[in-house]
Design goal:
Radius of gyration: 21 Å
Structural class: alpha/beta
Keywords: Monooxygenase, Oxidoreductase
Pfam family, one: FAD_binding_3
Strand content: 15-25%
Distance between the termini: 25 Å
Protein name: FAD-dependent monooxygenase
Strand order of the largest sheet: 6-5-14-15-16-13-17
Largest sheet: 7 strands, mixed
Oligomer: single chain
GO molecular function: monooxygenase activity
Helix content: 25-40%
Number of strands: 19
Organism: Microbispora maris
């Protein structure tokens, strides 16, 4: 039986492990952390990613445990709507709405389906040899470094991927996108309807989850590396006078639960998503800004496409990995660029530019939800 080593037990790595298991591979998943409790808060799973999850047999469970993004759209800080859509509009167009759940819920669903003994936590991959597939683990207190032989190595080790840096040492690293982000899950049962509010350089998103919780996220343009003594107070300073329910959400937030991270992305696409027996996946391959909500969704796509192509080219794994690189580079490169472009729009602070931006969105919204939805066709219409 062919053996794959997956480096990283995030959403992309776990999806890849299950997709490869479904194709008859034995899988070892290496996670450097002591557990797989994910860093993050909420997650929007778009129709394209739901189809990827259907491939590994968990799509229906995710739908069942999620909240549906019902009425949604883009608003101004005073609460006026610039554009609006509904879950029914998305379902009619794509066959599924966008569903919302805690990132930890999706990770739990995926991890529960790993074969017994497949997951090794507290285990760091030091290197992966693309020529042989040999993965060297970091030495532990208990003894010398260990090696694992693999027919395929899937590097899902995130935006600061050591594997990517080793495979493509001269390639530009991810760059700061000009904004920092905050995320939190807040208990506030009265909130209904998702929205994203665009101000002058600042953005605040509201996504109701199941169980009376709300996923909140925000971005603002500041120099990289800044941190506040109290991040909730910083959010109140930036957004506390915006429309309801934003002030109430911030008031109900646990200051200790507010996460802050600078946003980075890879402006120059890699020449390939593989080298030898090693494939890159998710943020290790194509880190993007969060403005399309496609970071995790594209990782899930990567995973099922990779498993399908290496299975199809079973006698020639090199051909399968080459096909994976070609297909996923063509798919993800325009999505990365489009997300980056939308991120730049949200950073506009000049009053005239902001007024023109908002006016254009309001004018497009007058033509109905199909105009707003149509721009997502190239992203959401993907099928495995």
């Amino acid at each position: 039986m062919a053996h794959a080593v997956v480096i990283g037990a995030g959403i992309g790595g776990l999806t890849a492990a299950l997709a490869l298991t479904g194709k008859g591979w034995s899988v070892t998943v290496l996670e450097r952390a002591a557990s797989i409790e994910p860093v993050g808060a909420g997650l929007a799973v778009a129709p394209n990613a739901l189809r990827a999850l259907d491939v590994i047999g968990v799509g229906d469970e995710v739908r069942k445990l999620s909240a549906i993004q019902g009425r949604s759209g883009i608003r101004m800080p005073d609460g006026r709507w610039l554009s609006r859509t509904t879950a029914e509009d998305a379902t009619a167009r794509y066959g599924d709405p966008i569903v919302l759940l805690a990132r930890s819920s999706l990770v739990g669903i995926l991890a529960e389906r790993l074969p017994p003994g497949a997951l090794r936590v507290n285990t760091r991959a030091e290197s992966a040899d693309p020529a042989t597939g040999r993965v060297t683990l970091a030495a532990s207190d208990a003894g010398a470094a260990e090696t694992i032989e693999a027919d395929l190595v899937v590097a899902a080790d995130g935006i600061r991927s050591r594997t990517r840096a080793a495979l493509f040492p001269r390639h530009p690293a991810p760059v700061y996108a000009g904004v920092t982000s905050w995320r939190a899950i807040v208990p506030l049962a009265a909130v209904t309807g998702a929205s994203e509010t665009w101000g002058a350089g600042r953005l605040f998103g509201v996504m109701p989850l199941a169980g009376g919780q709300v996923y909140c996220y925000a971005t603002a343009p500041v120099p990289a590396g800044l941190r506040a003594a109290d991040e909730r107070e910083e959010l109140l300073r930036l957004f506390g006078r915006w429309h309801d329910p934003i002030p109430a959400l911030l008031a109900a937030a646990d200051p200790e639960a507010v996460l802050r991270n600078d946003v980075h992305c890879l402006d120059t696409p890699l020449p390939a998503f593989h080298a030898g027996r090693v494939a890159l996946l998710g943020d290790a391959a194509h880190p993007m800004t969060p403005n399309l909500g496609q970071g995790a969704c594209q990782a899930m796509e990567d995973a099922v496409v990779l498993a399908g192509l290496v299975a199809r080219h079973g006698a020639d794994p090199a051909a399968g990995l080459a096909a994976y690189s070609r297909e996923r580079l063509a798919r993800t490169t325009p999505i990365v660029r489009r997300s980056r472009a939308i991120g730049r729009l949200t950073r506009w602070r000049n009053p005239l530019a902001v007024a023109l931006r908002d006016g254009a969105m309001r004018a497009a919204g007058r033509f109905g939800p199909n105009v707003a939805m149509r721009q997502f066709d190239p992203v959401f219409d993907w099928r495995p």
